[in-house]
Amino acid sequence: MGLMIAVVVIMLVFALKTMSAVRAFVAGESDWSKGQKDSLSALQNYLITKDVKFYRIYLERIDVPLGDQRARLEMEKRHMNPKIAADGLIRGKVHPDDIPEVIKFYRRFHQEQHLVQAVKAWRKGDVYIDEMESLGKEIYNKYRQSGEYSPKEFNVILERISDLNDNFTAVETEFSKKIGAASRWLENVILWLLVTSVILIQGSVVLLTFSFSSSLTRALKQFNFVTTEVGKGNFSEYVEVNSKDELGQLANSINEMIVNLRYQIHERIHAEESETKMKRLANSMPQIVFVLDANGECQFYNARWWTFIGMTPQDPKTVKFTDYIHPDDKPLVMHNCREALSEHRTYTGEYRLRDRKGNYRWYLERCVPLLDIDGKVVQWFGTATDIHDLKFAREELQKAVNIRDEFLSVASHELKTPLTSLKLQFQLRKRYIDKGEIARFTPEKIHSMTMDDEMQLNHLVRLVDDMLDVSRLRTGKFNLQPSKFNMTLMLNEVLNRFTPQIQETGSEVSLDAPSELVGNWDRFRLEQVFTNLLTNAMKYGNNKPISVRLIEEDNRVKLMVTDQGRGIAPKDVERIFEQFERAIAYHEVSGLGLGLYITRQIVIAHNGSINVSSEIGKGTTFTVVLPMV
């Protein structure tokens, strides 16, 4: 029986590995086809654009069919070099784990008629691959020598690429059909082998079962008699052991059980005394202590539990511990407890418990199984420790760490952008100077480069200023320096300074304000507020008109900045004023996500307020209200 099962297992393993190899072979055919198509597409793009990146893509893609070709040629040799074949398959994108089975599959079945036909179709592609490789080198050499194709030559080369594509399509179609036929043939052979083996084993099982049933019946009658006597309290009867097989082992187990029952009766008295001592100790502990039976039903709670829920001690079976777990935590706790019970392992978990006042506090539970000498669970001992204050302290610490990590990630990304631009500009100028190409630095070019440098430096200054402001806010060193000034004049100055950026976005900014509106505020900080609101409107305004209004009303000043951009979802209205937050993903626009946070803090420091009204797709209005002081 064991031999037959071993044969079936071996056949099953052989079948699985063979089917895995077929799967990898079919997947390789797909990569082979895709590699040819992609390389032709890249070569065509290189011919048209002369962009060398397409030539690199072409080399990378054609390496797949070239690798497959090299592997096939090596596997067809009588004395194959496995390393060369494996290297070729890796180039052909075959997974390294599948390579040994693919090689065995090819070597083992390469003379089977279906696979012979598939490989024959595969070989047809070699000619076209060689032609494509030669054509790629020809185009590359032509362009590398600064050559140009005439329109006629260009069309000829383009036609050759198209012909290669058509030829490859025919080869790929034939190859796919042949390899599919080979796969189906192999599946049928393996299926019939497995079915035959299963039928043989089933017949053997029937014969063995019939011969075993008679001896089993006699043994079961004796087992029934002895266990019935034990159930009546008679421990003098034993099962006769006549063999060393499973029945003999069962007989020994029953005899051992009878001996253990005698011992347990003696130990029960001692256990009751120990339980009394345990309850006294548990009642003196500050943690909640409980004891469960083997099935998880509560047998004991200590005094701390009854005090926690505000009840007098009573039968623990009438009070369910799980009824006091927070509804959000209960499903996970119950799932993990059931797993621990079924696997006889220690359970540890955190959850919230409701106290006598209806408040929830976080507790850490640890429940340990008590096993008998046979490894069976007798009881479960558990404790629940109050970790409420510790948990919130830990969460605040983790929140601070997360904010730090997020800040470092965003800051490094944003700082790198202007620095990279400045570095590239510097390298470009240095290369011109080294080559003596001073004529490239025309007054217009120098002015353009200076403007670009100034823009990047201003970007860096704004990022650093934002980071410094956040630091000042956190340390309480953010102070105002109020002075009397004309806010209308300040708004006009900011708009004039941003004229190049406004023109670059294609937006138009209109200002509706009295000719003079004087107040006692911190000019630098309010200029920062307006700058943040204006740059936000330019970022998210979809290059549409932006309006700025300044009015005096009820001894207060209102500054309103309105764009006609994408708008802000209602759920994001409050979130955008937090640190490192935006209404859209950070990679869509630049910045640290601190502007509106700093803006709100500045407005609050002036005893003012800021709010936003927005509608998706129609625009956003930020309104700053400041007292006249």
The low-pLDDT segments are 584-592
| Distance between the first and last residues' Cα | 100 Å
How many strands appear in the DSSP assignment?
Answer: 12
Which shape, going by the Cα principal axes? flat
Going by helix content, strand content and strand pairing, the class is alpha+beta
Radius of gyration: 41 Å
> What is the helix/strand order?
HHHHHHHEEHHEEEHHEHHEEHEEHEE
Strand content: 5-15%
Strand order of the largest sheet: 2-1-5-4-3
Amount of helix: 55-70%
Number of helices: 15
User: What do the pLDDT scores average to?
Assistant: 79
Largest sheet: 5 strands, antiparallel
Tell me what the structure shows.
The chain has 629 residues and is an alpha+beta fold. Helices cover 62% and strands 13% of the residues. It is built from 15 helices and twelve strands. The chain has a five-stranded antiparallel sheet, sandwiched between helices. The longest helix has 81 residues, at 151-231. The radius of gyration is 41 Å and the shape is flat. The N and C termini lie far apart (100 Å). The model is unreliable at 584-592 (pLDDT under 50).
Which characteristics define this entry?
single chain; 629 residues; alpha+beta; five-stranded antiparallel β-sheet; 12 strands; flat
